[in-house]
Amino acid sequence: MFVGIDVGTSLVKAAAFDRDGRQLAVEARPVHLDVRHGAVEQEMREVYAAVVGVLRTLTGRLAEPVELAGLTGQGDGVWLVDAAGRPVRPALSWMDGRAHELLDEWLADGTFEAVFRRTGSALFPGCPGPLLAWLDRHEPKALDAAAAAVYCKDMVFQRLTGAARAVTDVSDASMPFLDPRSRSYDDGVVELLGLTHRRGLLPAIGDPIAAGEAGGEGLPAGTPLANGPYDLPACALGAGVTAPGDGLLIVGTCLASLVATTELDLGGEPAGLYISTDRPGHWLRAMPAMVGTAALDWVLRTTGARHEELDDLLAAAPPGSSGVRVLPYFAPSGERAPFVEPRLRAQLLGVCLETRPADLVRATCEGIGYAARHCLEAAGLTGSLAVCGGGTRSLAWTGLLADVLGRPLRVVEGEVGARGAVLAAAARYGVPLDTAAWTEPTRVIEPDPDRAAYYAKGYEEHLELLAAARARARR
């Protein structure tokens, strides 16, 4: 029996798998996001309590003892903890937008590009660099009180195991301080961001990923537990995306596009990041866009529609959504991939009194699809494409995505991040598992040739509208 823990942005989940990779049981608990005036925070106590709660419920349902557990979770943000891993203040989420003025300064003075050329990481307001610099300016006492500035899963790992010090892994550390060649912190980047005097807050990097024994909260005492990688690379592992050129699209709160690569190219427009993996010389070229299911959630809520109606709404509007177009950049921190525009905002175009909720919903799904295509092209997709995430529960939307992307989609269902966390833990502990069986796709969805041709033209129009919107955002 193997357990994967996925500490998501809005939902904490734990899943149990047998040795052949069959998902046997899942427990989930929602966690609150406090969103106000560009600030997005989470209470660490609530997040940790949710982890313990889902683990207790899950393990109580299992007929067999847990042999091994793996941990993953949301990336970026800043989770300030004391020496025991307990919160100093609420966590600043990766969705937080308060540091956008700092990012504007760094974009203007060349710091932004200099960091990318050294690390392959394009800064955005919700990543640790800008957030730590913002805290240093506005809440220095919080940094003074902290022992470490960790990532979400690292806080959970330290608390579950009682580890004496905070530790992260190379995947989480990839944004924004890691040198992807040496797999260690680049102190030059720390200096560029004005954080040399806060260097001691950066957690140690477990390479390979850190391992420890559960102390008895949630998991039975003594259960082997491994920390990492974070949710994007964990999903890539869980979907079997490891061969160079193959890609993964995660249709979740964050619309994440990942392509496996052995090439490190720090040229071109600074955007996205290179995520270091458990194998030196292998990276994931990542374009984790802020646009995602959160945009669709907003449109459904605003139109009074329910998630259960999504397939019917998509069927009720034609391709092209009766002329309605949506640029789905709803995040208060703008966009971070495949470009960085902190002030970019969503646009609804072609709306009139005859526009129906179905038109708005389909236009949003199409707009998210266009954003995904943009990200995957920028990430260098050349091989097969897997897809997972909450958005794939809608068969109609998944089919629409295949048409917009113009390529077959290998749909991987279930708790893909938790599955990847288990596979990473098994590799760390030397437990042999059949990874091909664990990552077998549920089905393959082929695009419709006529609709794919239609959407290829729509994609070019999307890029034109986006260019004009980006120009306005910079004024």
3D architecture notes:
The protein is α+β, with helices and mostly antiparallel strands. It has a 7-stranded mixed beta sheet, with helices on both faces. The protein has 2 domains: 2-233, ATPase, nucleotide binding domain (Nucleotidyltransferase, domain 5), CATH 3.30.420.40; 289-411 and 445-473, 2-Layer Sandwich (Nucleotidyltransferase, domain 5). The chain is 37% helix and 21% strand. Helix 1 crosses helix 6 (152-161), helix 11 packs across helix 12 and helix 13 (395-405) crosses helix 16. Strand 2 (11-17) and strand 3 form a beta hairpin. The protein is built from 16 helices and 24 strands. The protein has helices at residues 44-61, 100-109, 111-119, 128-138, 140-145, 152-161, 170-173, 187-192, 231-238, 293-303, 310-316, 357-379, 395-405, 416-429, 435-438, 449-473; strands at residues 2-7, 11-17, 23-30, 34-36, 39-42, 68-73, 79-81, 91-92, 148-150, 167-169, 178-179, 184-185, 204-206, 210-213, 224-227, 247-251, 255-261, 273-276, 283-289, 325-327, 347-349, 385-388, 409-411, 443-445.
